[in-house]
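Side project, low priority. Logging it here so it doesn't get lost.
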Amino acid sequence: MDHDNLRMIEDGTAGRFDFDTVLLSEVGMAHRSRAAKIWRRIAGGLGLGACGIAVLTVVGCVRSSGGTWYFDEAPLPDGWPELTPVDAVQIREYPTYRAAVVTDDRTTAGQRQMFGPLFQHISSNDIPMTAPVDMTYDAAADGDGPDRMTGMAFLYRTPDLGPTGMDGVVRVEDVAPQAYASTGVRGSYSDAHFDAGLARVRAWLGDHPEWMVDGPPRYLGYNSPFVPWFWRYGEVQLPVVRHAVDG
C-alpha cells in the first residue's frame, strides 16, 4: 500500500473526497483482476467497444440474493445467509466467522481512522478481501446524541484462515453464531441511511415481542466507492434472541 495513502487514512487528514480517492487507488488492483481481463478478452473477441465492456462488467457483477440485487465485488464469508430485501425487516441467522476488528471509543472515531489499520492488516498478511465490512455503532456517551461508530471489522472468508490474536491495533477473533433483525438499505453508507434503517428495525421489533435486542446495532456495507452511491447495498441490523411471550 502506498505509504502516503496509508498515512492519510490512518491519521484522518484525508477529507471525504480524498478518502474515497485513496480507496479507489488502493482497492483498484482488485478490480483489475483476472475476471476483468477475461471480460476484456471476451469483449475484444466480440468486437465490442468501451460501452459494451462497461455493460458486460455491470451485468457480470450483479447478483440476486434473498429477493434483492447487489453488486458482487468480493466473496461473502462461508455460510453467510441470504441478503435482506431493501426496506423489509427479517431475521437472519449468522454462523461462526473470523473477523479482524478495530475499535475506537473516541467521539471523533470514524471510517477513516479504522479502515487504514484493517487494510494494512489484510494486505501484509495476504488475507483476501471479502464483503461486507462490519461497522458497529453504540449510543453516545451522554445518552442523548445519535448512535456513533465505535468499531469496524473485515471478515475472513473461512474461520480457519490465519491465527487469532492481536496484530497492532487489530484484534482477530472468532465471532459466535448470532441472530439479527435485519433490513436492507440502498444508497450511501451515511448516518441518515443508518438511522432510517435502525428506526425501521426497532419499529418491527415493537410489533414482534418474541424477539429481544441483545446488543448494539451494526451497519454492513457490501460495496466499495467503485459502485455509484445510489446503487450501493447495505444492511442495518440489531442482534436479537428469542423471548418467551406470556399468553
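Brief comment: The chain has two domains: 33-61, 73-242.
Revisit when time allows.
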